[in-house]
Amino acid sequence: MQKPHYSYIHLFLHPAKIFNHGAQQMVEELPHAENHLFVYAWEESLPTRRTEQTILDNSIMELDGLRKYLGMSDYVLVHHLTYSYEELAALTEEEAGKIIWFVWGNDLYRMPPRQDRLYLLVRKVYRVLKGKEKYKEQARRTVSRFHAINAGFVGDRNYIRRTFGDQVRLYDAVYPMGYFAKDLDRWADTTPHREMGVLIGHCAAKYLKHKKYLQKLLPYKGEIHLYVPLSYGNEAYAASIRDLPAALYGKENVTVLLTRMSPEEYVKMLSRVDVAIFDYKQQAGLGNLYLLMYLGKKIFLNPRGTLYKGFCEMGCEVYDVSRIDQFSLEELARSAPSAKNREVARKVFDHNELRRTWAQVFGE
Description:
7-stranded parallel sheet; 17 helices; globular; alpha/beta
């Protein structure tokens, strides 16, 4: 029996339901959706309502699974590139030319850009001695031959150019989050709140430096309410952090999230935040940042990071997190972010704008 052939096959390698389902729903709204097949690696992330074009196949986590679907389609869209350097290096030029990589964030930043900095040179020598650098360089060349790479954030697209060169085709579709501007307007809580709300990060991850900022914010104790989301991420790290905010600031002055909220509940909570702290260099938590921008919150980022540089390039107003303890409470409360922040964020939650960028990927 002849295998079916599709124009596009989507491989969802990450278990995150919101972004996977949002992507599939957006594609299903486009013309010729019947020419797409959606393949999930994780049973728990499958849509509740499944069509004949939605299947489960965890073999896609390995190279043989990818190759199987490359043979059944014109193009394969890899959502979250998790294949090893060795697996990527093994792809032929013809196979690479059929792949469209949809960047999530952390999957991009495991490949540092081509630079001559000393630390990269030292790391390269180490990897050569370990016999790994060969595969890494081959993997970089393979990715540069992909049919296209999609990255919804300008900072990621700049990184892609530095890492893979100017020849690779770029798209800028943003992953839908399952809700849109009209939903945010309905859910946002505009009730005035007495204490200044300060959000530290978005999940349980060491790179968010929770302990550092719990100490750094102590001068504001008694005048701020801390929000510390730990509902997903590293469970051991979450366990090491969860009791610390209450111990330092008092139970009544902190909200530690240990279970996931519904989108509506989460937006209502973010409505009570005034200042958000995200101190890291890579791209992560982008959806949270867009939500905060849409709600008009003040965001502090690492000035050496992709997010800070990218938002500045877009004309947004973000702040240097290394200077946060130099602001008085009045200064933190006084200056509101520019209207440009909300304008940029609105496009991410505009259904028609999202549909337009996704349609471009498929030439619709």
